[in-house]
Amino acid sequence: MNDYRILVVDDEEDLCEILKFNLENEGYFVDTANSAEEALKMELTRYDLLLLDVMMGEISGFKMANMLKKNKATASIPIIFITAKDTENDTVTGFNLGADDYISKPFSLREVIARVKAVLRRTSSTLGKEAQEQLQYKGLLIDITKKKVSINGIEISLTKKEFEILLLLLQNKGRVFSREDILAKVWQEEVYVLDRTIDVNITRLRKKIGEYGKYIVTRLGYGYCFECE
């Protein structure tokens, strides 16, 4: 399992689900959107790669890519265009917009997966380290390097486990982690840790981060997640 998160944007719902299923089988976290308008309402900075269809509604894949490249926060996100348009001019347009690859329909899933792996391998080493050193949601800021958390510029004191739980949830916004998942990732080799220990740490963490505590949501029977508005 890897930690790459991919967004598939295509107005063909069936195709989105097929790509999601196969990419998740490769270990990626995958979300889908059925229009550029829907995708632009999402928190795009959380994604390591976008798969964009070109021919969509009022905002085409080309137009969406152009918008993203003009925004400093999203300019460095790799883009692969997936489209039925395969003329030389369209391909050139895609690459001129900063696309990292261009796949024409119909395509094989093996080809898509191979190209996704190639783009992620190529771009992951060149993404700015600064983006990896800090993680932010609204006024909540995690300084990963300094192991500090602040809210609206005011540092708050967390224990090591509280910090690691918050980092895990914020790095994977919307993903539900079971108690077993959290134990494996935060407590790792430590033994004799009870499920109740996780609940206690979550309760303390919610209190310490104040207004942001409500975003740490309990999914009864499943676990916890950081759910954005």
Account of the 3D structure:
By secondary structure, the protein is of the alpha/beta class. The chain folds into two domains: about 5-130, Response regulator (Rossmann fold); about 135-225, Winged helix-like DNA-binding domain superfamily/Winged helix DNA-binding domain (Arc Repressor Mutant, subunit A, Orthogonal Bundle). Helix content is about 40%, strand content about 20%. The protein has nine helices and eleven strands. It has helices at about 15-25, 35-40, 60-70, 90-95, 110-125, 130-135, 160-170, 180-185, 195-210; strands spanning about 5-10, 30-35, 50-55, 80-85, 100-105, 135, 140-145, 150, 155, 215-220, 225. Helix 7 (about 160-170) packs across helix 9 (about 195-210). The protein is elongated and about 55 Å long.
Sum this structure up briefly.
InterPro entries: CheY-like_superfamily, OmpR/PhoB-type_DNA-bd, Sig_transdc_resp-reg_C-effctor, Sig_transdc_resp-reg_receiver, WalR-like, WH-like_DNA-bd_sf. The chain is of the alpha/beta class and 229 residues long.
- Can you count the helices? 9
Name of the CATH architecture of the largest domain: 3-Layer(aba) Sandwich
Fourth-tier CATH superfamily name of the largest domain: Response regulator
Instruction: Give the CATH class of the largest domain.
Output: Alpha Beta
Element-level helix/strand string:
EHEHEHEHEHHEEEEHHHEE
Shape: elongated
Main sheet strand line-up: 2-1-3-4-5
Q: Total strand count, please?
A: 11
Uncertain ranges: none
**How much is the radius of gyration in Å?**
19 Å
What fraction, in percent, of the residue positions are helical?
A: 40-55%
Q: Count the domains.
A: 2
Strand residue content: 15-25%
- N-end to C-end Cα span: 27 Å
* Named CATH topology of the largest domain: Rossmann fold
Instruction: Determine the structural class based on helices, strands and strand pairing.
Output: alpha/beta
**What does the average pLDDT come to?**
85
Biggest sheet statistics: 5 strands, parallel
GO cellular component, one term: cytosol
GO molecular function: phosphorelay response regulator activity; transcription cis-regulatory region binding
Keywords: DNA-binding, Phosphoprotein, Two-component regulatory system
Protein name: Response regulator transcription factor
